[in-house]
Structures are given as structure tokens and as C-alpha cells.
Amino acid sequence: MPSKGELTRERIMKAAERLFGAGGYDAASLRAIASAAGVQQPLLHYHFGSKIGLYQAGWERRYAAPEMRQDALADLDFSMDREELLRTLVKQLIAPPLKLGSTKQGRAFLRVLNWEINDPRAEKRGILAKYIQPIDQQVLAALAKALPNLPLERVAETRSLIFGLVSSVLNSLGMGDRPIKISPASLEQLVEFAIGGLMRIENMGN
Fold first, then answer.
1. pTM attached to this predicted model
2. What is the DSSP letter of 164?
3. What is the per-residue pLDDT across 144-197, written as a single tens digit (0 to 9) for each?
4. Among 138, 147, 158, which residue's Cα sits nearest to residue 66?
5. Which of 59, 110, 162, 190 shows its CA 20 to 30 Å from the CA of 133?
6. Which element (helix H / strand E) includes 21?
7. 177 or 60: which carries more pLDDT confidence?
8. Burial of 175 (0-12, 13-18, 19+ CB in 10 A)
């Protein structure tokens, strides 16, 4: 059973994630986070040291999950049947955001992620360099290897199209905190749609 301190820490992190997702890092004050968590502000300093410490702890918790780090890309068999390779790769790429979208708290983190990626001041926090950019390089390398006829200058664009498709699906199903449930059949349709798009984009590059 979690200790009282562990439960308090978890409550603070969940409240912080919701507020960071609502308006980005700069818009969330420690006072507001403490109020949302139902604790005194000194407890935030006790558990996390500072605002940036709290922010980084939230990212560390999320990226402790292997699927968020895209660990499985290292084991992808690029010698398999072409369509099966693309199907496996697409599922691997879209699984984390879809899983996050299935819970209220996960959707809060998706908004945090969006804020961080688009914040011109993000570089000084070091979050992108530690969590996002290394994974992005793995994704780009996997796409380049799976789509050998695609010009290298179009690989990043293709990656953006895949995640843009997932974002559009999640947004179309609801922008609020309501968890999103995608049926297995709908997931398969999404994957097949993405595969068709990838193959068409590659052919256009020839």
C-alpha cells in the first residue's frame, strides 16, 4: 500500500499535469497547482524542489513506460513482408498517443506534450532534448528504413503526417477530458489508412 507521502506526491503530479496541460508551463503557478492538489505549497518544494523539478518529474514518470520510449523499434524485423512491416511500424507509432487518449489523465499529458513541442521557450527546460528528440530520431530512422524509396528530405514530413492523423482522430472524438475509446475494428481501419498513405507517398517520391 502506498504511503501517505507517496499518495500526496501522486496527487500533486496529477494536478500539475492537468494545469500544465491547460495553459503550458509558464501559465501554471505553484500556488494554483497546490490548490488543485489540495495541499500546502511548501509540500511541492518538499517533494520536487521547484516548479521545473515538478515538471520534469511528470515527464520522467510518463516516459518510464517502454511504449512511450518506442523501445520496440529496436527489435523491428525489417526483413518481414512489406505490408506487414508497415502495419507493425504504424501500430507501434500510434499506440502511445491512442493509449494516452483513452484516459482523462492521459489526455491531460497529450496537451502538455503539445504545449512543450510548440513553446518557443521550451529549449531552456531541456525536456525536448531528453525525451522527445532521441525518440524522434529512432522514429525517423525506422521510417527511412521501412520506406527505402522515400527521399530522405520527406521522411520528417511523413512522420508528421502519421502523428497528425492520430491527433485529428483524437480531436474529432472530443477535445475535453473525456476518455476516448477506439474499437479494434476502428484501429485496424486507421492503420490500413495510414499504410495506404505511406505507400502512396513513397511512390510519389520515385
1. 0.88
2. H
3. 999 998 888 899 999 998 888 888 877 776 655 666 677 888 888 888 888 888
4. 138
5. 190
6. helix 4-23
7. 60
8. exposed
Residue 171: all three cell numbers together: 480531436
Of the CA atoms within 13 Å of residue 108, those in its CB half-sphere come to 16
Using the structure block, give the residue that is written with the C-alpha cell 511512390: 203
Cβ(179)–Cβ(187) under 8 Å?
A: no
Alpha helices in 24-81 (DSSP H): 30-37, 41-48, 51-62
Pick the closest to residue 48 from 56, 40, 37 (CA basis).
56
Given a contact cutoff of 8 angstroms between Cβ atoms, the answer to whether 68 and 62 are in contact is: yes
Q: Count the Cβ atoms, other than its own, within 10 Å of residue 61.
A: 14
DSSP alpha helix (H) spans, 121-154: 127, 133-146
* Terminal CA-CA length for the chain: 59
Q: How far apart are CA 26 and CA 39, in angstroms?
A: 21
> How many residues in total does the chain contain?
206
Phi and psi torsions of 70, nearest 5°: 55, 40
